[in-house]
Amino acid sequence: MLYLQLIFLLTKNTYVIIKNSEDKDNFIAELIDFIKRLDMKSLMNKNGLNGKVQEFANIADHIWFRHSKLINITKHSKT
After folding, report:
1. Dist CA 70 CA 28 (whole Å)
2. pTM of the full predicted structure?
């Protein structure tokens, strides 16, 4: 049991997009396309701005997870 706890403490999972990869290029292209299509008509007040920021955050997360890969980072991983 102590061994499993130690491994858990030394390992972390995270999502990454590999530098200079097709996934990185596709992520950037898709995010730019989404930004171009944003409807700015609702930015007339604070509530409209807050809603648009939340929409952007949700879509950016969705696009990120679609193009990223889950990796395990350990004490011995290269940075």
Report:
1. 18
2. 0.69
**Contact present, 13 and 71 (Cβ < 8 Å):** yes
Strand-pair partners of 69: 16
Residue range 33-67, pLDDT digits in tens: 999 998 888 788 999 899 999 999 999 999 999 99
Dist. CA 15–CA 66, nearest whole Å? 10
CB 10 within 8 A of CB 74: yes
Q: Are 16 and 6 in contact (CB under 8 A)?
A: no
Q: Record the tokens describing residue 34, joined without a space.
A: 């989404």
Conformational region of residue 20, where left means phi above 0, alpha means psi within -120 to 50, and beta covers everything else: left
